[in-house]
């Protein structure tokens, strides 16, 4: 079953919230998204100030780019969780009367 764009955005936010700052490839594997699509999604999330790109300086003048969820991203994720739980309650409430008939 295919995920919608919105579900994929939420999955990326969940991965970053759960696992902290991650490199592109780590997000790719944990969120199960291919690299080119993930880059587009991360660009969108960065534009919306939900994710932040950070450059870490390592030894020997090497740098590493990681992605971090912002506070706004955490807030949006919390709203999605609340909405999802409210919709599941509504779906269950709608199913129960149908079973009683």
Account of the protein in words:
By secondary structure, this protein is of the alpha+beta class. It has a single domain (5-100), classed as Winged helix-like DNA-binding domain superfamily/Winged helix DNA-binding domain (Arc Repressor Mutant, subunit A, Orthogonal Bundle), CATH 1.10.10. Helices cover 65% and strands 14% of the residues. It has helices at 5-19, 24-31, 35-47, 71-100; strands at residues 51-57, 63-69. Mean pLDDT is 87; it is low at 96-101.
Large-scale geometry: globular
Distance between the termini: 32 Å
Order of helices and strands: HHHEEH
Let me know the largest β-sheet: 2 strands, antiparallel
Counted up, domains total: 1
Low-confidence regions: 96-101
In terms of DSSP E residues, the strand content is 5-15%
> What structural category do the secondary elements indicate?
alpha+beta
Q: What is the CATH homology-level superfamily?
A: Winged helix-like DNA-binding domain superfamily/Winged helix DNA-binding domain
Looking at CATH, which topology would you report?
Arc Repressor Mutant, subunit A
Top keywords for this entry?
101 residues, alpha+beta, Arc Repressor Mutant, subunit A, disordered C terminus
Briefly, what is this?
With 101 residues, the chain is of the alpha+beta class.
SSE layout and pairing:
Layout: H1 5-19, H2 24-31, H3 35-47, E1 51-57, E2 63-69, H4 71-100
Antiparallel strand pairs: 1-2
Helix pairs in contact: 1-4
């Amino acid at each position: 079953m295919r995920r919608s764009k919105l579900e994929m955005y939420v999955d990326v936010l969940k991965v970053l919230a759960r696992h902290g700052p991650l490199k592109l490839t780590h997000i790719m594997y944990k969120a199960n998204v291919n690299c080119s699509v993930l880059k587009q999604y991360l660009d969108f999330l960065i534009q919306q100030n939900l994710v932040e790109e950070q450059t870490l300086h390592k030894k020997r003048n090497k740098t590493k780019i990681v992605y971090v969820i912002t506070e706004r991203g955490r807030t949006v994720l919390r709203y999605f969780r609340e909405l999802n739980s409210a919709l599941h309650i509504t779906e269950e409430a709608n199913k129960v009367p149908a079973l009683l008939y």
